[in-house]
Structure formats: C-alpha cells, structure tokens
Write a structure and sequence with these properties.
By secondary structure, the protein is of the alpha+beta class. The protein has 14 helices and twelve strands. The chain folds into three domains: 88 residues, no CATH class; 104 residues, Phosphorylase Kinase, domain 1 (2-Layer Sandwich), CATH 3.30.200; 180 residues, Transferase(Phosphotransferase), domain 1, CATH 1.10.510.10. It is found in: Membrane.
Amino acid sequence: MVRINCSSSAKENMAMCAHMMSKWGKENNVSVILSQAFDIPFVPGESDKIVDLNGGWWKFDENLEGDITIDSFKEKLAEYLEYPSSFEPDAADYSFLIWIGVGIGLLVLLIFVIIQTIRLVEKQRLLSQVEVSEFHEGLKNARIHQKNATNNDFMKTKYDKKKYEIAKQEFKFGKDKESATILGEGNYGIVYKLNVSRFPDPVAVKVPHSGCSKQSFQSHLSEIKIMCFIGENEHITKFLGAYTKEIYRGKVYIVTELCEMGSLQSYLYKVATNKRENKTTQYNELVRFCKEIASGMNFIAEKGVVHGDLSARNVLLDKHLTCKITDFGLSKKLYQYQIYTTKQKVELPWRWLAIETLRRLEFSTKSDVWAYGVTVWEIFSLGDLPYPGLMWDIKFLENLEIGVRMKRPEMATYEIHSKMLDCWNIDPDQRPCFNVLLSFFSGLKKNEYV
C-alpha cells in the first residue's frame, strides 16, 4: 500500500487518473486500485511508506515477472497527477461512459412515453379493464336479477378469439369508410358491404357510431356474445367474426354473412307495388316467410335467449329469399331468467311490444311471441306500419289492455288472423309457443288464398 504526492489542483483530476492508472496497470499486468479518498485520514501500518502530501491511497500488487516496481508506478501516477493535460485519452477510453449516458437517456424517454401512452389510453377508455375482461373471459359470477333464475350460460360464455377474432388490416374499407358501400344505418351504427381478406365473398360489417354511449356500445358486445352462444341455424344470420382489440375505447367491427336481398320489410314494400304478381303465389311466399321466422325463433327460444326486437325490419333475406333473423342488440338476458327488466331509458319499438313490456318493461319469450304476431301482420299487410295513424301514449296501452287489436290484413286468411290474436293474448301464459306456431304455418296448405 503506498500514498502518492500531488498538488491540491491535481485532486480534481483524481477520477480520470484512477481510470487511466487502472488501464496502465492492465497493460503492464498489474492490479491498480484507488483505495481511499483524499479527505479520509490514513492510519499507516508497519510496512506502509508515508508521503507528506495527500494524493490518495493506492493498492499496488507488484508483478514479480515484470519490470514494473512501486517506484515506476509512483512515477507514472505522479505524471498523471501533476500534468493531466499532457495525457489525452482515446475517445474509446470513455465510450462506456457515453453509452451509459445514452442508455439512461433512452430509459428516461421510454418511461415518459409509456406514462403518456397510459394517460392517453385511459382518457380514451370507454370500458374498464374489468368490463373488457368480462367480455373476453365471461362473467364468472353472473348477476341474476330475478328469482329462480338458473341458466346463466350466456353471461359466462367466453369470446373465442382463436375462432372469431379478425385482424383490423383484413377489413378493406379503402382510404376512408365513406367509399365503402352502406347497406343500412340506424341509431346505433352503420352496416357496410365489405371485402374481408379471409372470406372469398363480400360480408356485412356492422360498425357502431363514433362516440356512441356506453350503453349502446355494450349492446353491440352483447350481440356478439349472444350470436356466439346461439350457434348456427338456417334462419339466423350467421356470425363470422369480429375485431375486438379496441373495445376498451368503444371500437368494434361485427362481421356476419351478407344477405343480398336486404330486409324483409323493404322486400314487402316492393311486393306491394308489383300489381301483376299472382296473389296465390304471393300468399304462398308469405306463409313460407312466417314458417321460417317461427323456425328461427323456436331455435332461439330453445337456447334460452330473448330476442326483444323481432320485426320485419330485423329479418333479412339472402339471395334465395330465405329468412334470416338478425339484430340481437336487446338480447341481454336468458329465457330461463323468466323475464328481465331494462331500467335504463332506451328507445323501444312500442308498436311491437307486448302489454307487460309496455307496462313494466318485462321481456320474455312470450313477449317475443307477441312481437312475432305483429311481424306476421306486417307480412300479410305487405309492409304496412302496425297500428297505422296511432302515436304512443297511455291511451294506446289502455286500449290494448281492454282487448283492442289490429284487424285482419287483406292477404291473411281468417285462420291466420286468429293465430295472430292468439299471439296477442293479454295473458302471456296463454300465448302459443314458437314450436306450435312453426307447426301451424308448416301445416297450411298451399294455394289457400281466396
């Protein structure tokens, strides 16, 4: 252990000197270590040599096989201490310090970017992390609002990303969505006819309106879960997949099969204007529509799902004029809940709603049967508006409760109108089930129109 002289001005250069002496030691196969700082008193041992000026304590291990001695070490160190300007290290000597500085700077920048990104995401967030997780993983503890509710499979259903998730870049909207073909537009979103990479033919893509309410957006997510849960049926619009990566900020694309002929409602308008078509042919087609819708609704009811918004506008036609039930936006509960109550203020299709729905906002499979009866009336009136000339008020509900019902459409037989009246029974338990309605329309003979 040795102590080396240095002037007070040389102390400022000790850090550089320590680095350079370490390097010098490595070049000469010796170990050089700065042991103590200038201002720490030194208590020498018996073998230590004392130097008057405080130049720092150094540990020096002699290389017995080399020519380096303590004297040569002291001479080199004194040179660096007294004449630091005479030594000009290579740029590489301090490269590690530069890299450390760059690394620290990049780390600070990365942390800043992450914090700002998190803040931006949270600012744009529509759904909480819990709500996003519930959509993807299913609600483990389903909230059941009615007594004796046993079937909560829909609430617990997971969204199968491997099967249904579609990457955003697969959607061929073009430069902007305005150039895409619009099939329809409503209060809650727009439906486009679009090419999606993984499908050979064009599909229908539903996109919620930008800035839609949380309640409205969750109805779209509910529709996805319902379609996943229901599965495939000939008379249900086939769910093909979705883009859900950005649902946390209210963005989702819902992909279904394309029904080229549009809604049943618009088709009925066209039939009504075609005066040359044979009435019997028309009648047979209308009966088929009723049968196919009953088949689809029976399938839904057996799955324990309430549609809640059945009407001619929510039935689509494919290129073969086959009926496909669509729009499960109000299907948020299961049939075996018995009924569910919508507490939020939402726009409801009152012309198609059952008495108990208008009075207490109760939805059930039996309220779907009521709506089916109104849909059958639409079909045989060739698209007329139910309860024409009336507006919603309490008097309308009171008239329903005392037994006022719509008259028989011109295209409907008395037998068919009687079945409509059964669907509009004031007592939900007295209304027919969908399997009964399916049997009824399947059993009607062709060419019965008079």
